[in-house]
């Protein structure tokens, strides 16, 4: 794809809040995330409905092309933390379809998440990044902590 085509694709792509109609497209994108969890449709449907409906503690945005195809999504959670003197958001998932990666859509999704966070008075946005630290550092994020986890079955 040429640079001109990349730029026009990125500019034509609309970043908007997700709707319940986006569920199947987002589920297909989720399969590209490449985590240790195999996507379960029933669990996804429940979580997606919550992400779309609960705008107080979640933020779910999609990147849609002019024909309507969803080619990316960003999912963030928002919590009221004690040490941040206000709300803190965490970008939990960022997925851009492999066919349009490196076209600026991921950056636009992150910028849109940041804009909504600012509108909502969020004090900080954190990103737990296992495989994409270079991307986030390139757009102004810095490493401040390691995240450890325990998985409960």
UniProtKB/TrEMBL annotation:
Superkingdom of source: Bacteria
DNA repair in keyword set: no
Q: Name one Pfam family in it.
A: Acetyltransf_1
Q: Which UniProt keywords apply?
A: Acyltransferase, Transferase
User: Which GO molecular function annotations are given, in alphabetical order?
Assistant: acyltransferase activity, transferring groups other than amino-acyl groups
What residue ranges carry the coiled-coil annotation?
Answer: none
UniProt entry tagged with the keyword Acyltransferase: yes
Where the record annotates domain N-acetyltransferase, the positions are 13-153
Q: What is this protein called?
A: N-acetylglutamate synthase-like GNAT family acetyltransferase
């Amino acid at each position: 794809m040429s640079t001109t085509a990349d730029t026009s694709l990125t500019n034509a792509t609309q970043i908007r809040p997700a709707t319940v109609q986006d569920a199947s497209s987002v589920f297909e994108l989720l399969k590209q995330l490449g985590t240790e969890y195999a996507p379960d449709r029933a669990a996804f449907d429940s979580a997606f409905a919550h992400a779309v409906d609960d705008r107080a503690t979640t933020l779910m945005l999609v990147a849609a092309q002019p024909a309507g195809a969803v080619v990316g999504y960003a999912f963030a959670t928002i919590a009221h933390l004690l040490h941040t003197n206000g709300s803190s958001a965490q970008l939990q998932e960022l997925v851009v379809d492999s066919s349009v990666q490196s076209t600026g859509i991921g950056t636009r999704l992150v910028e849109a998440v940041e804009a909504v966070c600012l509108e909502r008075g969020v004090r900080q946005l954190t990103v737990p990044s296992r495989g994409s630290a270079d991307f986030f550092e390139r757009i102004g994020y810095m490493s401040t902590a390691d995240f450890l986890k325990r998985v409960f079955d």
